[in-house]
Amino acid sequence: MTTFPMLASALFNDGEFALLGVSIGAALAAWGAANAIAHLTGAAVESQARQPEAGGRIFTTMLIAAALIEGFTFFALVICMQVGNQVLEALKVASQP
Amino acid sequence: MIMFPLVLAMEDPIEHVGPHPITTFGPVVFTSHMLMLLIAAALMTILFVLAARNYPVIPTGLRNVLDTLLEFVRSSIARPILGEHTDRYVPFLWTLFFFILINNLLGFVPFNAVFSLLGGRMQAFGTATTNLSVTGGLAVMVFVIIHAAGILEQTRLQLRGGRSVLGAIPCGVALYFYRLVPPVPGVIGVILFPILLVLELIGTVIRTFALAMRLFANMMAGHLVLATVLLMIPTGRGLLSMGVAIPTVAGCVALSCIELFVAFLQAYIFVFLSCLFIGAVIKPEH
């Protein structure tokens, strides 16, 4: 029963696992965006195949939606980068003295 | 074997996209991104003033390119959304589109690398839109114009309805904030009105902040990826970097093609969403 706090403090005190969390967060954001844009592109190509005359407008709509999805993906990525920078600085400060 | 000095290399890729101070005017530091903003503004002024002189009936050459882009913004973005108010807001949308586009495209011209190879290490140029302050400034401008457009539209409607100028302005302001909120019937509507008003205003702030963030993150991510991929070359020295240079540079050329497309697309998206927000407040929705 006393080994669990020791194990937890050994794993989480220094902050390396914060870096792991940040990296997993960035990867999840990228996966979510790729999933969404792939789904969107599949629907757009299918509807272009059904009605080729509407191809230009469907392409424009697809581009706008893809840019909006990427917009909030980049929120998550920028947050991950900021947290990662802060953790790195905290690790540098902690390892000096 | 001639060993070139590591003139173009950098320690970390964030140094490639951040602003670098050039000179200081007292407490104010003049950075490379400010220089790029000035260059873009000068370029736009010279280009459009020279192109608009003695305009022929059928434009050719550079005039044709600019005319095509201007007409694209007006007829594909502004007119379907704004309708009869197009001519009032289209100069702002034109300026926004070309300013963002020229700033994005100036980031791909290798001023820094060429001048570094000619003499010393120079970092006085960069991409202005990789700075959140630059895109944030553009987004603040859009925010001000959204609310100003709504208030002026309501004031105009009041003036047309027959009020005096002194009475129309407060009525216009009050009606604008009244019409922002979707109507809820009954007593609950009166209670919920302040909450919904605050939510609408915060929604405007968040949407314009998303505009800034989208443009900033897209441009910065593109340049960061390019810098990180190029960082593979000096990482291994000697024979390894000889072998890795050619596919790295080829990959960077392909990435630059994608980034060129992203530059145009992000300018289009910024202007399209600004137009959508402006159209949402000047249309009589209720």
The biggest sheet of chain B amounts to: 2 strands, antiparallel
**Beta content of chain B:** under 5%
The major pleated sheet of chain A works out as: none
Order of helices and strands of chain A: HHH
Largest two-chain interface:
A-B, 11 and 10 residues
Provide the succession of SSEs of chain B. Answer: HEEHHHHHHHHH
| CATH class descriptor of chain A | Mainly Alpha
Low-confidence stretches of chain A: none
Architecture per CATH nomenclature, i.e. the level-2 architecture of chain A? Up-down Bundle
Shape of chain A: elongated
Helix content of chain A: over 70%
Radius of gyration of chain A: 21 Å
End-to-end distance of chain A, in Å? Answer: 32 Å
What is the residue-averaged pLDDT of chain B? Answer: 86
Give the integer mean of the pLDDT values of chain A: 86
Helices of chain B, by number, come to 10
Number of strands of chain A: 0
Poorly predicted regions of chain B: none
Structural class of chain A: mainly alpha
- CA-to-CA gap between the ends of chain B? 76 Å
Helix tally of chain A? 3
List strands and helices in order, with pairings.
The complex is a heterodimer of chains A (about 100) and B (about 290).
Chain A: H1 3-12, H2 16-50, H3 55-95
Helix pairs in contact in A: 2-3
Chain B: H1 14-17, E1 21-25, E2 28-31, H2 32-51, H3 62-82, H4 86-106, H5 111-118, H6 132-160, H7 165-180, H8 187-230, H9 232-235, H10 239-282
Antiparallel strand pairs in B: 1-2
Helix pairs in contact in B: 2-4, 3-4, 3-10, 4-10, 6-7, 6-8, 6-10, 8-10
Key features of this structure:
heterodimer, A: 97 residues, mainly alpha, F1FO ATP Synthase, 89% helix, elongated, B: 286 residues, 10 helices
